[in-house]
Amino acid sequence: MLEALEQELTLVAGANDHHRVLVNPARYRATSALDVPVRYSASETPWASLEGEDSEQERTMAQQPVIGRAAALDVDRRLNAAGFLQELLIDLVDLSLQGKQAHWNLRGRMFRDLHLLLDEVVDAARDDADRLAERCLALGVAADGRLATVAAGTHLEAFPEGRVEDHRVVELLVARLQTVSEVGRSRLGRLGELDQVSQDLVNDVLAGIEKYLWMVEAHRSAEQR
Ligand SMILES: [Fe+2]
What we know:
This protein is mostly helical. It contains seven helices and four strands; from the N terminus they run αβαβαβααβαα. Strands 1-2 form a two-stranded antiparallel ribbon. A two-stranded parallel ribbon has the order 3-4. It starts with a helix and ends in an 8-residue tail after the last helix. Residues about 1-55 and about 60-65 have low confidence and may be disordered. Fe (ii) ion binds near residues 103 and 119. Fe (ii) ion (FE2) binds next to loops.
């Protein structure tokens, strides 16, 4: 499958700067937060390392155009960099949804403080997801923030249903913010090799995530630490 993808890239890359490649981040799924090694060579794409072969129908549905007149990087680098951005985009969309779930169902003495802080986390996650998605497009690669894509690709554990006590909400949010920080940082080095502008954006996004990690974690009592 990788050879086919490379062949297609080679075939169309020189044709009037219009590239047509297979992009299927929806099917790229990690089984745990950090089990996807940073292993992509410049000629590989994350979605090219999927298990099994795509059916013809899946290939058609997954096709997204990569427009040639994009950032001044070769198409391989743009695709790989966008793959990393897409991963983080998915986690941030999930974080924004989980943040709202927590904002609504939180209860306990810390209700008001956490209720307001959670909305800040949600707003930041949504803004950052928007910046990441738009960077994908600046690289000429479609972003995918659809519900099914997020559900299939998120690195975050699911949020529990029902009312949740404030101390538990703090633990849940700390764990999710840590996951975003860990996954994001594990990709930073490779992303920088591919595209420093995208790396700068992810640095900025992670600085915000880690600020909220501190602010949420600070709600833990001494005995919880
Ligand atoms: Fe609200």
